[in-house]
Recover the amino acids of this structure.
């Protein structure tokens, strides 16, 4: 966040500040998704005797993966849009 604010204060373009923001978001995405998948994987392993709980955890794992894909696609599309607007 400090990088984004310092880019704007130092007179950098909005495109580079936006690019820094998307880089920041994607750099936080990897550890958060890894932690969520590790916790949900442990919960899934320990809930194999309870089929209803296992089904809910499998759904949550799918939601984490889909959410990560959506964030990656959104950052890619937004970066491309900003780069095309600058041209």
């Amino acid at each position: 966040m400090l990088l984004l604010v310092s880019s704007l204060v130092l007179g950098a373009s909005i495109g580079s500040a936006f690019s820094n923001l998307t880089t920041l978001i994607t750099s936080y995405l990897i550890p958060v998704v890894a932690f969520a998948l590790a916790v949900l994987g442990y919960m899934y392993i320990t809930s194999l005797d309870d089929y209803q709980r296992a089904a809910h955890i499998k759904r949550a794992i799918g939601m984490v993966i889909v959410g990560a894909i959506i964030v990656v696609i959104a950052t890619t599309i937004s970066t491309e849009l900003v780069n095309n607007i600058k041209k």
